[in-house]
Amino acid sequence: MTNQASDFGELDELYQEIILDHYRRPRNQGKLEGADIEAEGVNPFCGDEVCLQIKLKDGVVGSVSFKGNGCSISQASASMLTELVKGKTLEEAEALYSLFRKMMHGEELSEAELEELAEARVLAGVRRFPVRVKCALLAWATLEEGIEGHGKGGEAPGRITF
Amino acid sequence: MSMLDVEAIRKDFPILSRQVYGKPLVYLDNAATSQKPRCVIQALVEYYEGYNSNIHRGVHALSMEATERYEAARQKCADFIGSPSTDGVILVRNTTEAINLVARTWARSNIGPGDEILLTEMEHHSNLVPWQQVAQEQGAVLRFIPLTPEQTLDLSDMDRLLNSRTRLVALTHVSNALGTINPVKELGRAAHRVGARILVDGAQSVPHLKVDVQDMGCDFLAFSGHKMLGPTGIGVLYVKQEVVERMEPFLRGGDMVREVWYDKATWNDLPMRFEAGTPNIADTIALGAAIDYLQSLGMEVVREHEIAITQHALDAFQELERVQVFGPGDVAQRGGIISFFCSDVHPHDLGTVLDREGIAIRAGHHCAMPLMRKLGVPATARASFYVYNTEEEVDILVDALKRALRYFARTPNGTRGG
Questions:
Q1: What is the structure's pLDDT at A141?
Q2: Is the domain of B170 the same as that of B249?
Q3: CA-CA distance, B146 to B152, in Å (whole number)?
Q4: Is B311 found in the same domain as B255?
């Protein structure tokens, strides 16, 4: 069997194995009962959807889950996000979003910062495909919306059109 | 074999010789917009370089020339769709504006509380959202003709859907998201039997097959120039004579008036009554050039070519495993549009991969979000053909799709996954 990865050479940076793995086997997928934070993000242009739920425990993200529908980049990014924020305080989660956004907008991050982003750092490859950057950011913007709503004591789940 | 000399046609389109990412452009996004032949581009240049001036009121040579060419283009539009007169051939920006014009004029005086507007479940947002506004503002009710499993119209419940309360039937001739051709002539007859009017969205049909408004029997027909080799920013609303004569003006201002006082005005003749302000002169004239080009090919032959290439595509797509093609299997019932979905790979990912191969397709909801929900898919990928596309290009697409599907199915060791 030939190596199919070489078939579309430069696309390998966009569709890295690890991204496709998260797309095919999303982590933390499902629905949480009694979530403290809930937000839904939609990109009406391409139909990508991410619904994010967080349950807090002792001041940190105790459990987190997402449900979604969309392209590999949007869904893999959501899956990676859930792994990243687990066990973090909401401030730490927001700091991660800020790092991730900086990376996606083309700013150079230090090696230490990239390490903080763990697997999500591979999404930097999406930058070469500008129309897809929004796909990678959707879940993170949804998280931010959820955290902001929580800070304001909002009862209703946040909803953003991204 | 089609009767079109596609190789010769391709030479008329300068853009088709360009490369994308080092590969020859395979342009299969014609349902979004078509490319332009040199004669259309030339018509724009000639107008701006040779006789640019305002129309309908100048006493000088340039203005008279521009007026003549503008009105000649209108006549070409009328002839192209078989309209016996130009009174109801209103030049607008695009299909969307044409439909909004009907919603804001005719519908205001002809649709009231409890009246019904019958649409279909496959409408483009442009033939849905304006009617939502009419329904909200005037208390009318929207009804929808449902779809069969093959995404054609399910007409089994028409006795109930089309009734004495129905004032308007508005539907697309060829669905931009499915390719389905709808029986507009039969529906027109049925609409008229209950005293309703029929509006046909011809955005995807007028560029591709012979449309004759008298034969079709429609009261309104809307279409866009840019999908039929013409420029963007110019479209046509055809309105049947007896209807247009009783329609109130749309936009008000210069050009659409005959006499004006400080407190009132009278309206200009048809169709200028509906064209307030300086119109899109250059693009109208260039649309005329596009119509000349299509007429020189012959719309019957254009359609034959499209049937041949679509059949070729339908056959080739059968080789693709796990790919669902929407719309009827019978090529006679569909336009040159292949809308498809594969649950393994999201349409946007397919679009990105194909793009890098120089292949332009559309991926998304095709301005038909309710339809996507109905189909149970987030989006579809869509390849759409026109006079300059070849069966070879379809093969390039299908080959790239095969490789793309393998690419996304690969496992970490680089071999093909389950």
A1: 96
A2: yes
A3: 9
A4: no
Domain boundary among B263, B295, B327: B295
**Residue that terminates a domain, selected from B240, B266, B295:** B295
**B170 lies in which domain range?**
40-295
Residue B140: inside a domain: yes
Do residue B396 and residue B270 come from a single domain?
Answer: no
Q: Give how far A37 is from chain B: nearest CA, Å.
A: 25
Instruction: Provide mean pLDDT across the span B388-413.
Output: 90
Same-domain pairing of B254 and B386: no
Chain B: closest CA distance from residue A15 (Å): 8
Q: How far apart are CA B202 and CA B252, in angstroms?
A: 26
Give residue-wise pLDDT tens across range B135-184.
999 999 999 999 999 999 999 999 999 999 999 999 999 999 999 999 99
Same domain, B229 and B272: yes
**Where is A116: in which H helix or E strand?**
helix A111-116
Give residue-wise pLDDT tens across range B74-101.
Answer: 999 999 999 999 999 999 999 999 999 9
Q: How many CB pairs under 8 A join A and B?
A: 69
| Within a domain: B30 | no
pTM over 0.90: yes
Q: Which residue has the tokens 């342009």?
A: B27
CA proximity to B135, closest of B157, B165, B158, B179: B165
User: Any idea which residues of B carry the catalytic annotation?
Assistant: 367
User: pLDDT tens, B267-321?
Assistant: 999 999 999 999 999 999 999 999 999 999 999 999 999 999 999 999 999 999 8
Which residues between 32 and 91 in chain A have a beta carbon less than 8 angstroms from any beta carbon of chain B? 44-49, 69-73
Q: Based on the domain organization, do B261 and B319 belong to the same domain?
A: no
Choose among B204, B198, B134: nearest CA to B176: B204
Query: B306 with B291, same domain?
Result: no
Q: Do A8 and B365 touch (CB under 8 A)?
A: no
Count of domains forming chain B: 2
Structure tokens at B357: 């191969």
Same domain, B323 and B252: no
For the stretch A11-55, pLDDT in tens is: 888 888 999 999 999 999 999 999 999 999 998 877 799 999 999
Handedness of CA B281, B94, B118, B135 (dihedral sign): negative
Q: What is the rounded average pLDDT for all residues in chain B?
A: 96
What is the Cα–Cα distance from A23 to A76, expressed in whole angstroms? 5
Q: Which two tokens stand for residue B57?
A: 């009121």
B151 lies in some domain: yes
Interchain pair B407, A49: CB under 8 A: no
